Amino acid sequence: xxxxxxxxxxxxxxxPAMDLALRDGLSFxxxxxxxxxLDLPADRYFCLGADTRDAFLGLIDGQxxxxxxxxxxxxxxxxxxxxxxxxxxxxxSPIRSLVEDAGPLRLRHLPRAAYRTTRTAAGLRLxxxxxxxxxxxxxxxxxxxxAGTASAAEIARAHExxxxxxxxxxxxxWRSLAIAHHLLDRRLSxxxxxxxxxRPFKAHCWVQLGDTLVNDRIETVRAFAPILVV
Length: 230
What we know:
Blueprint: E1 20-22, E2 26-31, E3 34-39, E4 44-47, H1 50-60, H2 66-74, E5 78-80, E6 96-97, H3 110-142, H4 150-166, H5 172-185, E7 191-197, E8 202-209, E9 212-213, H6 218-221, E10 225-229
Helix pairs in contact: 1-2, 3-4, 3-5, 4-5
Pfam families: Transglut_core3 (PF13471)
Protein name: Lasso peptide biosynthesis B2 protein
Domain Microcin J25-processing protein McjB C-terminal: 121-228
């Protein structure tokens, strides 16, 4: 399901006179034929009613019905702005998992893993998801990332072991934020991915380095469509 959006990876409007973009802070995916949105500033997910859904799906398929456009702008989903594609969130399909290929635990990574986990959990409770995501974005923008996943495998193993000790394996959000910060400490540039699926609705979060999953299993993340990639 990763990277699929009605066969469209990045749809642009065909009429250049009607350039549109998603409102700032809004991202979306298409799963089970439905557009699902994340309003990051409001920290909420939502779907659309039938008429609005059809208008939005038509729009990303290149059908620029002026009435549909006006409706989507009035609802605050879109803004009129030139030069920006309306595109679903997208990330490389993972072909390898560091969790599944876990090596021996290197104790030297445990103190940093514990520090990052404690600090991230507290920050998420105090400041919320929007600021936590913003901090990851700023840190990624500042570093000159280096390649390689050797140290990432050791970091993944340390965080997995810590989660077993603290019984926090189901805390995917703050565990993923903590691992992302730990990787950034080592000048690696991870992708923090938030994904969803419908019927029933469920959200999930994981970390990737390119096509390599850092803290999850391939079969698990395949059930989710990425809705935000940081």
